[in-house]
Every structure is written in structure tokens, then in C-alpha cells.
Amino acid sequence: MMGKIVSSLAVCLLLLFVGSAAAFAQTAAADNQEMLRHLLSDIDSSIIALRKGDKEGAKSSLRGAFAKYLELKGPNENIFENNVELAELDNFIKQMFSSLTTTPVEDNIRDLRANVISLASGLSISLPFVYEQAMLLVLLLAAGISLVITLVTKKVVNWERVRQIKAEVDAWRKEFLDAQRKKDLKRLHKLQQDQKRIYELQGQMMSETFKPTIIYIVPYFIFWYWLNSFYRGWVMAWLPFSLPLPFYGLWVSCGFLSWFFISYFGFSSIWRKLLIGD
User: Fold this and answer.
1) Which end of the chain is less crowded, N or C, counting CB atoms within 10 A of the terminal residue's CB?
2) What residues contact 235, with CB distance under 8 A and at least 6 apart?
């Protein structure tokens, strides 16, 4: 009896040990992936700063990236002793960091980023799929969300009534502009008397098209806020040019917000044309 109890305890302890070791390994792998993500994010930040003409900001980001690089490869020093190729790549990366923190050049920073990814791969460290394919995933996500919202809008809104009101308002506006151009005071006076009814129709149209927003606005913003927190600081796409924007400055890359909205409104217009004809 005692032997069975001891055997059972031994098995339980063994399973506990194996489970703990697996959990620790998984946690360590996740930590390494997170460290690599922050390292690459700092490298990307240096490119953004450089494109905006902030060389000191680029150097600062590269110094931060180098510190994270040393931290990433620190626990794996023994691998470099037995792997000549990785050791050479490590030395080359250090030289690149040293050079770029003095004179940052975008093309060279991109080469540095690629080399860091290669070395991390040699250490069996890779970016999580959701970051590695972030651009495509957010594009598909925006397409799916815009499709769902378009289907809800199609179902909830009385589009026949909306089109009828729109046609009536457009006809009134066209006639009003024509009367103004021809200085037809009699017709202008008659149209102005009908202006109140036109405003009421516009209000009805806005109220009708606003209906679906009440259904999806809360879950939409909760989901959007969560994704924005998840991808904060991650570059989704690079602009092939620098675009000056008022109140913002130079726009050089797409983070989550800009890439999501570009994708969302692009697909939304397509779905509305196909499914609603609006």
C-alpha cells in the first residue's frame, strides 16, 4: 500500500516538474519574443525619427535597441561559442550598431534590422505571427469588420426611404442653385419657403442612417481600443514618401490606427457599393 502511495507521489512530482519546466520554457520563449518585438520597434523608431529629420532621436532609438539586443542574446552566449556563423553575425551587428549610432542611414538601419532577425532565428527566437504578419492581419480584420457593419446597416436602414429623401433634397438644391445663378427672385422665394421641410427631410435621413451605429458602436470601440493597445508602437507599413500633415507634422509610416482606418474605409466603400449600392 505504502509503495503505491510513494509511486503515485513520485509520478505526481514528475508530472509537476515536467509541467513546470514546460511552463517555464514557454514563458521564457514568450519573453524572448516580446524582447525581440521591442528591439525591432526601437529600430523602426530610429527610421521614423530619421525620416522626420531628427538624427539625435534616431541615435537615441538605436542606443535603446542595442541595449535590448545585448539583453536578448545575453542568456544565449554559450551558443555563440559553438557556432562560428552566429558569432560572426553577432560581431557584425555590433559593428553596425556602433557605426549607426554615430551616423544613422536608413538603408543601413534596414540591413541591421534584417540581420537582427536572422540572428534571432539562429537562436530559435521569432516574432509572434500576429506581429510578423500584422499588416495583412489588420487588413483582413478591417475587411471583416467593415463587411459586418455594412450588413447590419443594410438590414437596419430603410434604404428605399433614404434614397427617396436624397433624390428630393438633391432636386431642391439643384433648383435653388439654378435660381440663384439666374437671379430668379420669385422662384428663390418659393424655394426658401420650402426650406424648412427640406431640413426636416435631411434630419429624417440622418436619423435613419444613424440607426445601425447604436447597435455596433460600443463593441466596435472596445475591440478597436484593445487592438490599438495590442499594436501600439508597431509599424504596419512604410510610406514611400513623407507626407506633411497639418497639426501632425511629417507622416512617414502607418501604425495600427492609420493602417486600420485606411483599410476599413477602403473596404467599407467597396462593400457599400456591392451590397447597398450607395
Assistant:
1) N
2) 41, 44, 48, 253, 254, 255
Any bridge partners for residue 245, and if so which?
249
**Are the CB atoms for 77 and 121 separated by under 8 Å?**
no
Its domain, for residue 118, covers: 2-127
Of 193, 197, 202, 194, whose CA–CA distance to 161 is shortest? 202
Please state the rounded mean pLDDT for residues 200-204: 87
Three cell numbers written together for 178: 439654378
Q: What is the DSSP letter of 219?
A: H
- Burial status of residue 142 (CB atoms within 10 A of its CB: 0-12, 13-18, 19 or more): buried
pTM of the model as a whole: 0.76
Q: What tens digit of pLDDT does each residue of 12-47 get?
A: 322 222 232 222 233 345 788 999 999 999 999 999
Instruction: Indicate if 6 and 38 belong to the same structural domain.
Output: yes
C-alpha cell at 158: 430603410
175 lies in the same domain as 51: no
pLDDT, tens digit, 9 for 90 and up, residues 120-173 = 998 889 898 999 999 999 999 999 999 999 998 998 888 888 889 889 888 988
Length of the chain equals 278
DSSP conformation class of 74: G
pLDDT tens digits for 220-265?
Answer: 888 888 888 889 889 999 998 888 888 888 899 999 999 999 999 9
- Mark whether 149 and 271 lie in a shared domain: yes
Q: Rounded to whole angstroms, how far apart are CA atoms 21 and 10?
A: 16
